[in-house]
Hints:
- 26% of the residues lie in helices and 28% in strands.
- The chain contains two helices and eight strands; from the N terminus they run ββββββααββ.
- Strand 5 and strand 6 form a beta hairpin.
- The chain binds zinc ion (ZN).
Amino acid sequence: MPKYTYACDSCNNRSVRMADAKQKTDTCDVCGSNMTRQLPSLNGPAEVTETVDSFMNVKHRQDQKSLIKERNDEYYWKVEVPKLANDPTYALETKLENGWIWIDDNNQIHVHDKPPYKR
Ligand SMILES: [Zn+2]
């Protein structure tokens, strides 16, 4: 049976008890009032990890997730965007709207190779 922390509704008594998962209340052994089961508290920073390789049990942290996203972004802007920018099936307006290209003061068209937040 799992352990739960119960807190008394009347006094400040708290106790950790083995209880059935369905048992949400208990009786306070100090004052006899109703005790309410507490939600499990997270101690310290709860780092979210994701198992990348379950065989090797390799886990990576959440900031690596954004690193991967950044890498994907990089690929998109370095490889995909130049293709899209040169694709004649897209109108110039569409290319501008999507931020694939930009036009400088001399009316020269340039292709963006970085995501907007890196420019
Ligand atoms: Zn009590």
